[in-house]
Write a structure and sequence with these properties.
heterodimer; A: 149 residues; alpha+beta; four-stranded mixed sheet; 4 strands; 21% strand; B: 262 residues; alpha/beta; six-stranded mixed sheet; two-stranded antiparallel sheet; 7 helices; globular
Chain lengths: 149, 262
């Protein structure tokens, strides 16, 4: 229900003043998502795979993660898509750990790391905040996810 | 720095005391159309925020707010209480490790706006990536302390488009400079929209393997749906609609084992 809390808070005039927001007096309320934009979206690339191919080769650090209880853009969708990149595997699939528990599973490819977050939904840091933070720290450090507790 | 100081947030209503700085405001990305994007920067809560990287967080939709989701539900330092009267601290905020820049993009999302109404009806991937790049360049001239700083992009869902598209734009833009001001080091995306065809097959497979839909629906969807075409057939529509309307039940599709919000 958390997005309804945000809609209450960010429509408060004192919050908008404190944030220097809505200075032009927008004629509609602040909403978490815009119906107009989603319904009238014009151009949408069919696939991101060519961009991934190009950027993975350019040396950028790329991590793709997936909360495994999401059914909207689920883990099987991501895995199926990524498999078509045909990237060589650097580190084979293994469980990563935090707090004496499996935090998820990961596989490292040449130019890209894939990781799941066990028990997390679409918004991974909302449902599994600690696991998400461990994942982010590993990403920033450029290190593989922890193999042991 | 005067412009930067104008954007400083003294304190948000209902906010607990914190030691890190926050800024928010608008950056104009298209003068003639009057498109302006709204950002919220929450600096790192570490004792040395100037040594920490900058992370730009984008949400998906398309059309959803980075402030609503990324900042207030996911990685930001504050959570909002039920009545919208107070904020409390997020124990696992990512601003321990990075300076977080939340961007409401494209124009029409959250506080971001355009003075040209037609902009709201012809937004798309290409303009969003271009506006986001312009935003970053202009934002860095307002916050020059972040020029050359290690920079990362993150996001989820439809930001699976925004994030790599912006990374590519930055990569191409940076080719003209020997020492680019946008020091892009990498990006990470979660539950990201990646490929229409493979995502769709993977999604239907997830529904079936998690016992959300019947064998019959699974077989019908795979039989009738051609996920490579723009317009789906009526048979495909019917098969998917049957599964969603008669088999899914009232679950939170974004987190299938979580109680729904009543």
């Amino acid at each position: 229900c958390t997005e309804s809390y945000a809609e209450k808070y960010f429509n408060r005039p004192d919050v908008q003043r404190a944030m220097h927001a809505n200075v032009t007096g927008i004629r509609y309320k602040w909403t978490a998502c815009s119906d107009v934009l989603i319904k009238t979206w014009k151009d949408s690339d069919k696939t991101m795979l060519p961009i991934y191919k190009e950027l993975a080769a350019s040396g950028l650090r790329i991590w793709i993660f997936s909360g495994d209880t999401d059914s909207v853009v689920p883990v099987t969708a991501t895995r199926f898509s990524l498999s078509h990149l045909n990237l060589p595997v650097k580190t084979r699939w293994y469980p990563w750990y935090t707090d004496n528990q499996v935090g998820g599973w990961t596989e490292v490819y040449k130019g890209l790391t894939f990781a799941t977050v066990r028990g997390a939904g679409h918004e991974v840091p909302l449902f599994e905040p600690k696991r998400a933070l461990i994942l982010f720290r590993s990403f920033l450090a450029g290190k593989e996810l922890p193999r042991s507790y | 720095s005067r412009e930067q100081e104008k954007d400083r947030i003294k304190a948000l209503p209902g906010q607990p005391k914190v030691a890190f700085s926050q800024y928010s405001g608008y950056v104009n990305v298209n003068q003639s159309h009057g498109r302006a994007l709204f950002y919220w920067l929450t600096e790192s809560s570490s004792p040395s925020p100037h040594t920490k990287p900058l992370l730009l967080w984008l949400n998906g939709g398309p059309g959803c707010s980075s402030i609503a989701y990324g900042a207030s539900e996911e990685i930001g330092p504050f959570r909002i209480n039920k009545t919208g009267s107070n904020l409390y601290l997020n124990k696992f905020a990512w601003n321990k490790d990075a300076n977080l820049l939340f961007l409401e993009s494209p124009a029409g999302v959250g506080y971001s706006y355009t003075n040209t109404s037609s902009d709201l009806k012809d937004s798309g991937d290409e303009r969003t990536a271009q506006d986001n790049l312009i935003f970053l360049i202009k934002w860095l001239s307002r916050f020059p302390q972040y020029k050359y700083r290690d920079f990362y992009i993150a996001g989820e869902s439809y930001a699976g488009h925004y994030v790599p598209q912006l990374a590519k734009k930055i990569n191409d833009y940076n080719k003209a400079f020997s020492k680019p001001i946008i020091n892009l080091k990498g990006f990470l995306v979660g539950n990201a929209v990646t490929d229409n065809q493979y995502d769709s097959i993977g999604t239907v497979t997830y529904w079936w393997t998690h016992a959300i839909i019947s064998d019959k629906s699974y077989k019908s969807i795979l039989k009738y749906c051609n996920f490579t075409v723009e317009r789906v057939s009526d048979d495909c529509d019917n098969a998917v609609n049957y599964a969603m309307n008669h088999e899914f039940g009232d679950i939170d599709q974004y987190s299938i084992y979580t109680p729904t919000c009543v």
